[in-house]
Each structure stands twice: as C-alpha cells, then as structure tokens.
Write a structure and sequence with these properties.
This protein is mainly α. Helices cover about 75% and strands about 5% of the residues. The protein has a single domain, classed as Helix Hairpins (Orthogonal Bundle), CATH 1.10.287.3240. The longest helix is centred in the C-terminal third of the chain and has 81 residues. The radius of gyration is 34 Å and the shape is rod-shaped.
Length: about 200
C-alpha cells in the first residue's frame, strides 16, 4: 500500500512528479542513444587505427633493427633526440561527457636532431617511422580514452534510466492510482451521505 495521504494536493503533486519522471526517462533514453552512437563511431575509428598502428610498429622496429645492425646499438645517438613536449589535450563535450582531443606537433625538423657524421640512412628511416608511430599512438590514445569515458557514461545513464523505468515511475503510477481511487471512494461516500440527508429532510 502506498505511503501517501490521499488528498487532492498530493494527487496533483504526484501527477507532476510522474510527468517529470517520464520526461526524465525520455531524456535519459535519448542521451543513452546519442552516447552509444558516438561510442560506436569511436570504436570503428579504433579498429581502423589498430591495424595502422600494428603496421607502424612493425615498420618502426624493423627500421630500428636495420639501424642497430648497420651502426651498432644506437642508444647513444637516440639521446640526441629532444624530448617531445608538444602533446596538448583539449576536450569536447558530448551530452556532458568530456571526450579528449589530443594534438601534437607533427612538424618534422628540416635538420635531423642528431649528427650526420656517424649515422646513415637506416637511422633516418627509423627516426621517420617512429615519428609516424607517435602520431598513430596519440590518435589511438585519444580514441580509446573517449570510448572508455563514453562506456562509463552509458553505464551510469542506463542505471538511472532503469531506476526511473522500473522503480520510480511504477511507484508514482501506483501512488496516483491509490489517491485517485481513494478520492473517488470519498466522493461516492459523500454523495451517498448527502442523498441520505436530503431524503431525511424531505
């Protein structure tokens, strides 16, 4: 039995709350659909990127192996390459979910960051392949983080939609029915009482 006093004020309040709950459920349902659509687009992008990044890793490490074979271990030469701090992160909002946009400086230096006296073309190839790999890695990190954040938001939205659909809306519907039935019963009793009074007075 609903824990509500059957008054007209409570009936109006319950109806208003029920209308808001239904509206909230519709909004949650739309939000979930938009987030799922956005996540599927990112998953497609991640799948395409995964193939590219696998190829890029293969090419980069093959070029590194060639450089190591022709020059000996190139760890010392690698120290000449400056630390890349050009990565920047901005965010775009999708239905309140912050999706990262990761950018980095793609400009390749016109002059190699290492001396040319003790290097060869194999090292140049390795350097260029790792620059390409960096671009793919940054893009994949952006996409995978976006997918993770969207998945978390979808899960939260689904919980809220389920709570509205399975608990709150049925409870409010039950309250409205209970109050309506109680008020109608009270009106019938009042009508019967007035009828008895009239018959006694006449």
């Amino acid at each position: 039995m609903p824990n509500v006093i059957p008054t007209k004020g409570n009936l109006m309040s319950s109806r208003r709350t029920l209308t808001l709950a239904n509206l909230g459920f519709d909004l949650m349902d739309r939000k979930r659909s938009i987030l799922i659509h956005e996540m599927m687009a990112l998953i497609d992008a991640a799948s395409a990127l995964q193939g590219n990044i696998d190829e890029a890793f293969t090419r980069a490490y093959a070029a590194l192996l060639d450089a190591n074979v022709s020059l000996g271990l190139i760890g010392g030469l690698a120290q000449a390459v400056e630390l890349d701090d050009s990565v920047q992160i901005r965010f775009r909002s999708v239905m309140g979910v912050e999706i990262p946009i990761v950018t980095a400086d793609d400009a390749r230096p016109e002059v190699a960051p290492y001396g040319l006296a003790f290097t060869n073309a194999a090292l140049d190839r390795a350097y260029v392949e790792f620059l390409k790999l960096k671009t793919f890695t940054i893009r994949l990190a952006e996409v995978e983080t976006g997918v993770y954040r969207l998945a978390q938001a979808i899960k939260k939205t689904q919980k809220r939609a389920n709570a509205l659909q399975n608990i709150i809306i049925p409870n409010l519907t039950g309250d409205v029915k209970f109050i309506t039935d109680a008020l109608e019963e009270k009106e019938r009793e009042e009508f019967a009482r007035l009828k008895v009074i009239r018959s006694v007075n006449s």
